[in-house]
Amino acid sequence: MDNHKKGLLLTGLGVLIIAPDALLLRLITLPAEQVVLWRGLLNIVGFLLIVILRYRSQWWRAYLVCGRAGIGCALLFSLSTIGFILGNHFTKAGNVLVILATAPLIAALLSRFFLQERLPLRTWLAIGGCMFGISLIVLDDLGSGSWLGSAFALIAALGLAGNFTLARSQPHIDMSPMLALSGIITAGLALAWSGTIALPDATDMGWLVLLCLVVLPVGFTLIQQGPQYLPSAEVSLLLLLETLFGTLLVWLFLSEHPSQQALVGGAIVIAVMLIKNGLERFNKTPEQVA
């Protein structure tokens, strides 16, 4: 299997695994700061267990080789985690997932300025189209005060895109072990914010264990390996699968329907991204994709 196909397989499988993320967050009744705290604490355990299983007695070496870039990835992933949780707390899950779908365009911009990867005209046009779609979602949120959720969702997209771009800068190093460090950072920030740890009830703890010890560690470990084989923008682009399936799951199980204006904005973002990806696949080889 060539590197491009391997990258697509790892990333695509990881994205499908994390698709229930927004739904599971909606099912947890803890305050937002406690969700961030418990997600961080349990992610430490989940991601560390995967590292130990993969690297056995040499697991600690996996952290040493990541260096400063790995620390940066952990910080950016923490930013994305906090933005995603708070975004879901203040606005509809579908809105958060659509805004998160802009991560590939942000990654393309970051790659252009920091990795000197060329940014073609179609990418600039796609950025403009996505910004228009997002503006419809944000304007729709203004009346209900949930614009803050859209802002946090955009922060999540920035953190995710930055993480993938930084990982792409070191394609020979597996940065996925640093996701355990991200859990430490996330939990520490949440504890400083809340000042206390609230013990979840049995139902909430069950959802937290499923999300933070199974779904997120397995899914993001696969996704974090994607930049070893694919451009960061292409890894981010596969997150469109989470937008589609994650929104569908919330609709099916919680009947959380977006407004007509939010649907139009989301449709614009997804359509632009699909058209952009189709043009790139038709006109360029995988190695040339922005």
From TrEMBL:
What SUPFAM superfamilies is this protein classified in? Answer: Multidrug resistance efflux transporter EmrE
Q: Which InterPro entries match?
A: EamA_dom, EmrE-like
- Which chain regions cross the lipid bilayer? 36-55, 62-87, 93-114, 121-139, 145-166, 178-199, 205-223, 235-254, 260-279
- List the keywords (alphabetical): Membrane, Transmembrane, Transmembrane helix
Pfam families recorded for this chain? EamA
Q: Which residues form the EamA domain?
A: 6-138, 148-274
- The identity of this protein, by name, is DMT family transporter
Give the organism, scientific name.
Oceanisphaera ostreae
